[in-house]
Amino acid sequence: MTETNGRSPAGAAGIVALALVASSVILGGFFYQARHAHATIQVVGMASQPFEADQVKWSLAVGRTVPVSGLSDGYVRINRDVESVVAGLVSAGVPRDAVVRQPVTTNPMYGSDGIRGYQVNQTLYLVSEDLDAVESLALDPSGLLPQGLLLQDSRLQYFYSGLAEVKRTLLARATEDARMRAEEIASATGEGIAAIESARAGVFQITEPFSTDVASYGIYDTSSREKEIRVTVHAVFRID
């Protein structure tokens, strides 16, 4: 029997056979992995909840008009005016230390011949848990304002002290809603849902009731006493 390049035909055939076996093992393993690569389902869960604010912030700005020569007296008078307003709030049941005063500001008023006077203003605000009392004062502040004092601005903002707990509860509910959606999709194909692979919470949308407003950076509407909070969870589940 002859040899080719110093190797017998039987040896060459054996090497070829081993190569074929190795190739089949590698390809078979790849095929097994491809057949058993896990599939996933991506879903979006959502949860919402109405709630009522338990804190209110009332901001109001008051002012007086004074002539050019009466600016110094204007500062004295606006200070006296604000003290009167604070006293009225206290008599209505608002703690004195709950009222915060901002610095006095002055705006010139112009006429055809230049400055004809000044508007002396001061802003104050209070935070209270007695929403009804503060709303009553804000809706009819006439009894708080001394004669000649102008109400420049008045605004109520509503907050909820337990918002952190509400957010945690809502995230859990949104995640559970995502799982239920994934199970419904999987069951239609005869599959089941295994462990969650990843989840990403969206931003919270806190709006007045029945609002359709959304924002990519989230919303916190403080203008209404009654509110609704919504959140979504983007989840990926492995198919069992």
What does this entry look like structurally?
A hairpin with a 2-residue loop joins strand 4 (105-111) and strand 5 (114-128). The two termini are 59 Å apart. The radius of gyration is 36 Å and the shape is elongated. With 240 residues, the protein is of the alpha+beta class. The strands form two sheets. Strands 1, 7, 8, 9 and 10 form a five-stranded mixed β-sheet that branches. Strands 2, 3, 4, 5 and 6 form a five-stranded antiparallel β-sheet that branches. The longest helix has 28 residues, at 9-36. The protein is built from four helices and ten strands.
Short description:
By secondary structure, this protein is α+β, with helices and mostly antiparallel strands. The protein contains 4 helices and 10 strands, in the order H-E-E-H-E-E-E-H-E-H-E-E-E-E.
Residues in helix, %: 25-40%
Measured between the Cα atoms of the first and last residue, the distance is: 59 Å
Which secondary-structure class do the elements indicate?
alpha+beta
Number of strands: 10
Low-confidence stretches: 20-36
Query: What is the radius of gyration computed over CA atoms, rounded to a whole number of angstroms?
Result: 36 Å
* Elements, N to C (H/E): HEEHEEEHEHEEEE
Quote the average pLDDT: 87
Tell the overall outline. Answer: elongated
Number of helices: 4
Beta percentage is 35-45%
Main beta-sheet strand count, sense and barrel state = 5 strands, mixed
Characteristics:
single chain, 240 residues, alpha+beta, 5-stranded mixed sheet, 5-stranded antiparallel sheet, elongated
